[in-house]
Amino acid sequence: MARTHSSYTASPTRTRSPRRSPARRPSKDGSEYEMDLDALGLNSTFESTELQASYEPPVDRVDTSEIEGPEDFTMNMTYWMTADLPLAQIKSRKEAKGRVEEERMDAMREEDAVQDNTAQGDRVIVQTNTRAHDMRMSNSASPTRRAHGTTDERNYSTPASERSMENDEKVRSFLSNLPDTDMEGAITGTPLHVPKQSFLQIPRSSPPKARSLQPTVEDYDTPRKPTQETVIHHTSAIVDTHAHDTLHDQIAELQSRMGQQELSSKTRITELETILAYTRSELEGARAENYKQKERVASLEENVEQQKAAADAAASSVEAELRSKEEALDAKMHEYGEEMRLQNLSKLQNQRGDFDKQLEALEESKRLVEDELETKGQALTQVQNELAEARRLSERLLNDAHQAQDKSAEGNAKVDEKLDLQLSSVQARADDLQARLATATEEAKAMREHAEKVDKARKDMESRARVRNTRVTELETNLQAAHFELECAQADIAAKQQLFRTNLDLSTHLRTLQSEMNLARTAPSTNGQEDARHEELESRITTLQDQLQTSRADALGKDQEILRHIRSEEKLEQSVSTAQGRIEGLETTISALRQQLADAHREIAKTRTDSERLTHELDDVNDRLQDSRLEADRRVKDVEQKLGNLKEAKMDLERRLRDLQSLHDDHIEGQEVMLADVREKAEDAVKRAGALVDRERSEKRRLIKELKEAKEAAEKSRSQDQVDTTSEDESSDDIESTTSAGANEKEAERQSLRYTIQKQTSELKILSQEISTLRKENKKFKSIINSHSESEASTDQLRNELSTLRAQNADLQSSLEDQEAVNAAMDEKLATLLSKLMKERAKTVVGKRDGQWQASVGRVQSEKELLGKVLLRQWGREEVGIADEKHGEPQEYQYKYVKRERA
Question: Which of 162, 299, 548, 765 has the fewest CB within 10 Å, making it most exposed?
């Protein structure tokens, strides 16, 4: 339901606005109503006769329930709609109130302009009809109907007990106790307390100069616009008294002073308005310049962003190209590495073949050494056989010596000499054999050293075999030495056994001799022969004892030597067993090495086939590498060209940035100068407005003092004349209303000045914000310059990368030249092989082709002959006629062969 606030309307009986009912501070969402029944045209009589209070005009009562529904409905609706609103709605209503206050200030200016046009007429009306006006003001019959049912001007309103709503008093007390609000639609007509708000008129759609009054319901604070038609002149009884004339003169003088003050204040306000308009125009011009500058800066920013985008795109393209080049170079390096690996593999295979050849040579030398060792072993066997023969001879000689010793004692010396001679010969031969064995061992050692020197030339792959071969040779030499020492020990043992036997024989013979001596002693004889024999036997016994003692000593020494030889023989047997195990292990390793050698030969064959395949692939890779090199050179040239373009774009961008910086600095200086001027003008305007306000305040105090004096004079005159008391009260009220209206107008002007000052300060804030934005833009431009410096660093880095890529390209070029030289040599070899193969293949192909050509030529020749015959036959049929070929008649024709002679 829409809220309407009505108070009064212009009545034909009023010259000025009547006494206004005191306004109530707007309550929170309050909804109270007033009606002016004069607007319905029911009270058209004059009210000047009410001085005697004898006239009561007929008035029709119209309740608000008849217009806007029952009172209980509207009041209950207001009662239930006074709850607290949400914050968002309160904020929206406060904003609406601010807008309405601005509209009221604009309407105040329009009303002042309208009132200026009617000011002179108003003063005339007041001077001529002051008494009648006072009487009408005291007895104005514009009864109003208020929502609370109060009767300030009329005593015939409906009492509250007759209302239809029982709890009317509760609702009205609730509405009267509502808190004040600032909402712009919550004004009621209940006079609780005077509001502290300006009485500005909200502009209506009605024209400012109305010739006729329409019955309307308006707000209570709508000012009346008096015209000549609304002023009704009455013939009233004028009391000519001196006091009244002096009072009227004073009032007229005060009104003239007020008019002059109003004119001066209006002229000052117009001056201030012109100053404000000038400053506003300057601000608008500065704002327009600022907008233009912003547009220029925006266009320059767009250009800079476009150039930056182009530079970024160029840099990204360059990076992509460099990345592609790097990838291509990586691929080429990978391919080159593969090629080098294959070449190294081929070299290693060649070296392996050389090592295999060396291994074969070493094996051959090993075979030769083994042959030599076999020959030396055969020689050793021969020496052993000779030693065995010597041993047999010694044994035979010992047997002969024993036999000779048994036969006679005289042959013992000779036997001993023979034995000594034979032993010396055997010893000499043994020494000779020992020397030969030493030489053989030395030769074997020399051969072994030679084998070791040859084995040292081999690489780590043959180290184990070399160590094992040397170990085998060492074990073989140790074995041979052990065999030789064993044989020597066996010969010594046999000799010792023979000596032991001889000693036993001698001991037995000595015992027999002693027994014989004892018998001889027991049976002494006188024969000298027996004495001589006994002496001889004693001498022989002594010699035999001596020999026995020496033989025992020799037997003991030889027994010790035999024990020592037995121990060494046991050690040698152990070493021989270990050597045999090692020899078996070496034989297994040699067989494994031979198997590995066979596998290596097979792998060499495979690698040869792979090398042939890789040579073809290498040719293809070389061709691709040449193409990629040409492509890389072309791309490098493109990159250099793009870098030059980037340099040019950078120089242009720096030049534009310098121009922008200069424009920005000029703009900032202009803005600062303009802000200083605006600030000075605003300060001057504020000072002038303050001085004007102070002057108006002092003038207001003086006027209030004069009004008080006038009131006192009016009270004195009222005591003299009781009849005119009401008119004087009305005149004083009118003066108060005019003074309050003037004060309100001045307050409105002050508010307008404050509003303009606030606007200027807000505009200054906006300009400061724009300056801050321009400073931010300047910082952005500086960051763009820094980014361009970074792009320069990136371009330098790209140049360095290009130089490194070129160096790598040169290295690749040199490696390619080396590869091309190798490939040329291999191509020559392959060309010779291919030429041979192609010649052989060509011979076979040419032979086959010649045979096929001869066969095809023969077929073509036969076909041509057949076609010639058919053609001649057809010509003959067409020229001569068809012959009877069934009966053997040949076909005739007129064509004849023409034999052409060859030049």
Answer: 162
